[in-house]
Structure formats: structure tokens, C-alpha cells
Amino acid sequence: MKGWWHRFIRTPGELHALGVVGINMRNARFVLPNNPRRLYGLVDDKTQTKRIAAEREISIPETYGIVSNPAELRRVERLLGDRESFVIKPSRGSGGKGIMVIAEKDGEHYLKPSGARVTIEEIKHHLQNILAGLFSLGGLRDKALIEYRVKAARIMTDISFQGAPDIRVVMLHGYPLMAMLRAATRESDGRSNLHQGALGIGVDIATGRTIHAIHHGKSVELHPDLKVPLLGIQIPDWDHILDIAVTCHEMTGLGYLGVDLMVDEEKGPLMIEVNARPGLAIQMANGVGLLKRLVPVQRRAKEHPHDERRQKISFSRNTFASKSGIQPTSLP
């Protein structure tokens, strides 16, 4: 029997019964009451997020430089130096917009993961677009970060087409609710954006193993390009990933948030960014409505207001473990 994610048209009553959270419910019941507007700047501006993460000693990609105004474009060559790989991203971008990934250098040209050649002038033009606010929230003028390009762990790149997959953990009050791996396809051009054709792969909160995958809203078990299995993959350092995610809640003060991470082959899990309005496709990736996890966490947080990080993680792992023979951990 096909699950709810196979039908695109559902009545409001059916969606409610399935625990599916829509944008209006997310905003009214979970974002607005739990995320004070004054805290948004800490996560909407990646330079601010990286600053407070460094204060908490959370592992993050090294920043090579920041371009804040057009006059600084003259020093881009000096800023890049002999670096052969790096990532350029808007400080206030969202949804992966405006991110340029450089994988290597070939003479005077830079190469994207797809093999496409990029000149230094094209890089400067892209930086100009970032500064002009082409990719920023609200179209406001922005600044560009040039940072370390994550060398994703092999087990991760094996299920992603020409792009490093990332992991999103969504939380309420510091309790991990759901996790999803976003893997690139040929269609998504190496980007981990589900709307552009990337894969959404649900991850068991208890173990860090992949349990369900979707492509354009339909369940799949193999990567459409690589033809490799997507389920049963163990994400490395899962304990550390959950610890970083909960620490991001503590450092931002946001009650409802999503934390994006990547696993580097040598450096381990790295926090990439924090989102105060995480998207809802994670429900389809897991085949579970978020409300079925939000309500138990609301109840737990009310009954146990002094739960510490270890207790929050333990509660989530016990309560939201995949029903596939997973043995729950002990709850202190």
C-alpha cells in the first residue's frame, strides 16, 4: 500500500490525521511563539552564525575571507592566492541560492565539480551579484564569504552526484525531531536543493541510518544517476552531529530551528548554517508528519523544563526511533 507522500492531493482532514505540518501551522504554532524576531540576525547572517559558533567551539568551515564592498573586488586574486578549492556564498542567502563551489584550478581557470570552467572575471561578477543582494533575504545588499570547501566523507559522496550532500536536523526546544540527508543528482547540477531535483533521504534519529528516500515527491531506493542503494547508509559521527545540533539551539536561543551540517573526510561533522524557518520537505523524506513529533516534544518540554542536552537527545532517540528493529537507548 502506498503511503501518504504518494498522493499530491489530500483533504485538510486527511493531512491533519497524518500529522502533516503546513507553512501556516509551522509559522503560527512553532516559529512565531518560539523564535523572537531579535534573534533572527544571528542565523540570517552567516558571519554572525559562524562567530557565535566559534565561541561555542563548534566545528565550522574555515573562512578564507569576506568581501564586503565593490572596492574589495580588486583584492580577490590576492585573497584566493594559490587555493585550488573553495566555496563562495552570500552571507544572507537562503535555499542554497548564490553558492558557487570551486573544486580545483586548471592553469588560469577554476573548475566547478561538474567540470565547467570559470574565469577570475566570472568569479568577480558573481561576487558583485552577491554584494548587490541578488541572492539575499529581502534583496538587501550583502557580503560574500569565501570559505573552505568541505571534502565530504566517502560514504556520503558515494550517494551524491558531483556534489557533497548535507544533513539537516530540525529541532524544537533543543529536542531533535527529524533528520534528512540531501543528495545531489545530475538534474540538480550538484546542488542539494530538493526543488531543483536533489534527493531527500530520511534519517533515523536514533541511529543515523538512512530509512526512506524521495525524488520529486516519489519514493525511491536507488540514486537515479549513480544507481546505488540509498537506504541503510550509516552517517558517520551521528552522536557528534546530534550534539552539534542541540548546541546550535543553545547558542542561538531559537526554539524552532533547522541545523545544516556536512561530514568532512578529515575534520568530521561541520556546522554549515542554522535556519529559523526550516522547510517542510523533511516530512516527505521521512514519510512522517512533523506534528506527530512536535506534540510529544511540547509535552516533554513542559513536564521536564530542566532537561539537559544529554536528556533531550536520549528522549528523541527513544521516542522517534525508526520502527525497523532499532533498539532504543536508555533514558536517564
Automatic annotation (TrEMBL):
InterPro entries: ATP-grasp (IPR011761), RimK-rel_E_lig (IPR011758), RimK-rel_E_lig_ATP-grasp (IPR039523). GO terms for molecular function: ATP binding; metal ion binding; ribosomal S6-glutamic acid ligase activity. Residues 300-332 are annotated as: Disordered. Residues 313-332 have a biased composition (Polar residues). GO terms for cellular component: cytoplasm. Keywords: ATP-binding, Ligase, Nucleotide-binding. One of its GO terms (biological process) is SOS response. Residues 50-303 form the ATP-grasp domain. Pfam families: ATPgrasp_ST (PF14397). The keyword Transferase does not apply. NCBIfam families: rimK_rel_E_lig (TIGR02291). This is Alpha-L-glutamate ligase-like protein. It comes from Haloferula rosea. The lineage of its organism: Bacteria, Pseudomonadati, Verrucomicrobiota, Verrucomicrobiia, Verrucomicrobiales.
